[in-house]
Design goal:
The complex is a heterodimer. Chain A is α+β, with helices and mostly antiparallel strands. Chain A has two helices and four strands. The longest helix of chain A is centred in the N-terminal third of the chain and has 12 residues. Classes of the chains: A alpha+beta, B mainly alpha.
Chain lengths: 78, 468
Amino acid sequence: MTTEVKIDKVLDVKGLVCPRPMVMTMNTLKTMEKGQVLHVLANDSSTKHSIPALCERSGYKLVEMKDEAGTISFIIQK
Amino acid sequence: MSDFDFGIKGWWDTWYKKFFREKWPLWIAAIFMALSGIIAYGVAVWSLARTVSGENPYDQAKPLGTFLGLKELGGIINSFLGKIGLPHYPFNGYIWPDGQTINYFVQYPNPFLEPTAGTMLGILFGGLIAALLAKEFALKVPLDKTEYGLALSGGVMMGIGAVFMFGCPLVSTTNIGAMSVQAIEMVIGMTIGSFFGAKIIVWLEKRRLASLACAADGAGYRPLMHFEKTKTIWPKMPANADGGEPFGIRFQPVMAIILTVVMFIVLARFTKIGYPALSMSFLAATLTGFAMQRGGMCFAYAYREPFLTGFSDMSRAMALLYALLVIGFLPFKLLGSVSPDIAYAEIFAISPAGIGILLGSALFGLGMALNGACVSDSLWRTAEGQVKIWVGLLTLICVSSWLFPMREETWFKTIFAPYGSKNITDVYLPQIFGSYPIAVVFTISVVLLWALLMTWFAGRTFKKYMEG
């Protein structure tokens, strides 16, 4: 991890394609408490658009977004 | 000197990142798609004029669409099935509904010379170039059985739906621009189908989440789920993220440039041997595929997300695309209406409208929501290396090609007769209203209303999510 944030849950949705990564991210965040942090790992390019849009609209904080070696990683604080 | 070098390199890096690596805003992608759609329409009108004058009857471009090429493929598949004694539709060629237009369309000496087959390849190629420039190509094989189940069931529904609705969502886009009643029916049907598709996905994911246990792994993390059910065949990734990019990723932009140069050489040759219109049409389709991959433009997303996740940004981008095409096609339509030689150009991309279109598009919408992509979405996402999408696309192509000759059956034609009529005819809004301005205002109003409705549904879905 490059960002010093305590991760509460990890959601690895590599291999799943739109819409499932987004639906699972939303459902997972729904089960978490305010302030908790979710780390999402995906490799479907649609998440680059959809997950930042979710954070912007819902008020969740997108702490970090990285696209390295084929894995797109998001750290989201609820 | 070094400052100068730094300036150029910095400028290039910034613009490369903006244009080729980062996702485009949806409205920019919609404008690019509209531009390529208008170019393709113009090229189709030009090729029609050359066909009518007898200058070049074989170089027939058509407006953007990714479906009709399947009739050629269907002919091949059905002939083959017949030879080996399997169920098939006898392939005897096709008769166009409007007897007067049959002279403009001939059976093609090679299925790839069918213009929409070229469009399919163009979108695939444009998506591939964009994915390579963005270093986003990776051959990914999901090992999760549900993904294949959704792809297969979605592919079958879309395959049947496409035959019944006379096309795919890209056809509906072109046909809305052309002011066809069929396209409006397609939008309504696909919206209804996507609504039910979204409900099925919500149900499936709830079941899946409920069955998963959250366990501590001893390292301070609480993994909710590790699928680890994907296999990246190529490129091979480094052992850790600090190991640098593997050659297969670093080399991708160079590969894109090589492929682009090869494409221009092939198209120049193709133009020289008598197919300039098909070459230009291919280029327009390539631009469409490129813009779709860069913006992530997806018809499935536009129709499904307002009911699934509560997002309507893509629906509004699609509405912008529809409206721009209505305006962009108008000069060619007016040209066709005053020039007898290309009179047919006025009703390019118009199809029959009847209950069959509505039923077919609802089934297509349901399949599209489950598969996660329609035909054109599948093409650019296939080019990204998503193997799951290949399964859905191939299923769709095989099913619809096999069923395509069914369109010649009498019962089939009956359900495409316009309401109140017994004969199958194309339904064109300017003919109904007797006025271009009224038809334009009506079509754009329908598009606007659809965008507003999708935005309202999205707001409702998202509110439920945040409150729930």
